[in-house]
Write a structure and sequence with these properties.
By secondary structure, this protein is α/β, with parallel strands linked by helices. The chain folds into three domains: 116 residues, Periplasmic binding protein-like II (D-Maltodextrin-Binding Protein, domain 2), CATH 3.40.190.10; 81 residues, 3-Layer(aba) Sandwich (D-Maltodextrin-Binding Protein, domain 2); 77 residues, Double Stranded RNA Binding Domain (2-Layer Sandwich). The strands form three sheets. A five-stranded mixed sheet has the order 2-1-3-10-4, sandwiched between helices. It is globular, with a radius of gyration of 19 Å. The N and C termini lie far apart (49 Å).
Length: 314
């Protein structure tokens, strides 16, 4: 009997995701013993500061990746949108299961849709990406910083006098809270985060046993889309300090990728769509990033990072 330890954060959503992976593994390999190992990450410990101010990459994955490299767990389950553009040497994204709905949702206190929110409404969001797009679409709205797990954010909708909050549809659906959703926000207004709605099953690169056991869970279309989005993110050296969004879709034998870079205050929002063959997703991500850099994203990113974003040739 093979024993498998899954590394995960301890939040309700993270545990749900890890339990889902556990159930898939047991369906495929009922002879295995699969257990969860809960690990507290830096992002879980710092709850009173916006993530953009904490800085750094991998705030929700680094400690789990360390456990994976040290052999304390055999695989890690992450939300793909938490994954830095670069994976540590010795590790890889082994499997990308089929994606849940990648959109954001609005949950409002009085049932108002986004465009019907009252003038000067207060909207809670933990993300610079969401905040920038809200301000661009509705400059009158005040964006209120919001941290904590999903239950905490829903509670703050009532306790902090907010008119609405914006969350990822995938997390709301996975925790069975769909009835709270007021509106699925169209991606023309709110382009999702890179990898949003997808899971990342991270493994040691040389662990052929685990890679073989998990391989049937991989979903080709989701992997192609996510690889394209992550190539776009990597080219922009994206972190949580700048509003970057991207979403790819497989349309028959073609891949369509839309990306966005914005000023934090929403005053500038650069958006572009490219498409190409499915097997060229990574190149498509690089092409899209370079188009946006040429349109002005380079200046936005340079201002945030305090240094030039590297040219592709370097």
């Amino acid at each position: 009997m093979t024993g498998i330890k899954i590394g995960t954060r301890g939040s309700a959503l993270a545990v749900w995701q890890a339990e889902w992976v556990r159930s898939q593994l047991l369906n495929l390999h009922p002879e295995c013993h699969v257990e969860l190992v809960k690990i507290k990450t830096t992002g879980d410990k710092i709850l009173d500061v916006p993530l953009a101010q904490v800085g750094g990459k991998g705030l929700f994955v680094k400690e789990i990746e360390t456990a994976l490299l040290e052999g304390r767990v055999d695989l890690a389950v992450h939300s793909m949108k938490d994954m830095p553009a670069e994976v540590p040497p010795g590790l890889c994204i082994g499997v990308v299961p089929e994606r849940e709905n990648p959109l954001d949702v609005l949950i409002s206190r009085n049932g108002h849709h986004f465009q019907a929110l009252p003038q000067g409404a207060r909207v809670g969001s933990s993300s610079l990406r969401r905040g920038a797009q809200v301000r661009h679409a509705r400059p009158d709205i005040t964006v209120h910083p919001l941290r904590g797990n999903l239950d905490t954010r829903l509670r703050k909708l009532e306790t902090e006098g907010l008119d609405a909050i914006i969350l990822a549809a995938a997390g709301v659906k996975r925790l069975g809270l769909e009835d709270r959703i007021t509106e699925y926000m169209p991606d023309t207004v709110m382009l999702p985060a890179i990898g949003q709605g997808a899971l990342s099953i991270e493994v040691r690169q040389d662990d052929e046993t685990i890679r073989s056991l998990t391989a049937p869970m991989d979903h080709r279309e989701t992997r192609l889309a996510v690889e394209s989005e992550r190539a776009f993110l990597a080219r922009l050296e994206g972190g949580c300090q700048v509003p970057i969004a991207g979403h790819a879709r497989v349309l028959e034998d073609r891949l369509e990728l839309t990306g966005l870079v914005a000023e934090v205050d929403g005053s500038v929002l650069l958006r572009e769509t490219v498409n190409g063959p499915c097997d060229g997703g990574k190149q498509l991500g690089l092409e899209l990033a370079d188009r946006l850099l040429a349109q002005g994203a380079r200046q936005i990113l340079d201002n945030v990072y305090g240094r030039p974003v590297q040219d592709l040739a370097t």
